[in-house]
Write a structure and sequence with these properties.
heterodimer; A: 121 residues; mainly beta; seven-stranded mixed β-sheet; four-stranded antiparallel β-sheet; globular; B: 113 residues; six-stranded mixed β-sheet; three-stranded antiparallel β-sheet; 9 strands; 0% helix
Chain lengths: 121, 113
């Protein structure tokens, strides 16, 4: 059973950088899966942020691309998210998730519990 | 930034049947990409409920069913139970070069009366 666990600061100052890590257990990050970050502002819907493959290949949501960096650490079986120049609009619960991708598209079959990040001074 | 449209809310009495629609476009559902559904109980992470338009992961009750036609998809819950009260999201892949690779629905809150 794959498990994902997000960790990182719960409070970030405006204009600062949000940094989160997702630890994967029960499976290898080097498997044939992509790994994603998804966020959900309080009381709102889900927004896909971006994804990474164990090779280091990434894809980002164009709306966030200029501010997002996702990286992978295979030795620690984890991947990370950095979001720069944050504002209050970036306040959200951030989830990491495993993707299952095939020719019909992709889905998210395992999710972390989520971590609330608040942007405030 | 949701690209898939869902009704904000649906409700029904215990035992009734409710349906949730998910409307997309020619770059996602209409392009032939699969639709998946997630259930989000209050205060928890989304959970995969239906995959590949109409398939249930192990452990999901058969009162949940999904379908897809054209640029839309639907989730049906038959024999509604109190524990089904949650938010439901559809999701698909999008081939638009200017948009997000993965898109979610706007979300639907199911209330059991």
């Amino acid at each position: 059973q794959v498990q994902l666990q997000e960790s990182g600061p719960g409070l970030v100052k405006p204009s600062g950088t949000l940094s989160l890590t997702c630890a994967v257990s029960g499976g290898s990050i080097s498997s044939s899966n992509w790994w994603s970050w998804i966020r959900q502002p309080p009381g709102k819907g889900l927004e896909w942020i971006g994804e990474i493959y164990h090779s280091g290949s990434t894809n980002y949501n164009p709306s966030l691309k200029s501010r997002v960096t996702i990286s992978v650490d295979k030795s620690k079986n984890q991947f990370s998210l950095k979001l720069s120049s944050v504002t209050a609009a970036d306040t959200a619960v951030y989830y990491c998730a495993r993707e299952y991708y095939d020719s019909s598209g992709g889905l998210f079959d395992y999710w972390g519990q989520g971590t609330l990040v608040t942007v405030s001074s | 930034q949701s690209v898939l449209t869902q009704p904000p809310s649906v409700s029904g009495a215990p035992g009734q049947r409710v349906t949730i629609s998910c409307t997309g476009s020619s770059s996602n559902i209409g392009a032939g990409y699969d639709v998946h559904w997630y259930q989000q109980l209050p205060g928890t992470a989304p959970k995969l409920l239906i995959y590949g338009n109409s398939n249930r992961p192990s452990g999901v009750p058969d009162r949940f069913s999904g379908s897809k036609s054209g640029t839309s998809a639907s989730l049906a819950i038959t024999g509604l139970q109190a524990e089904d009260e949650a938010d439901y999201y559809c999701q698909s892949y999008d081939s638009s070069l200017s948009g997000s690779r993965y898109v979610f629905g706007t979300g639907t809150k199911v209330t059991v009366l």
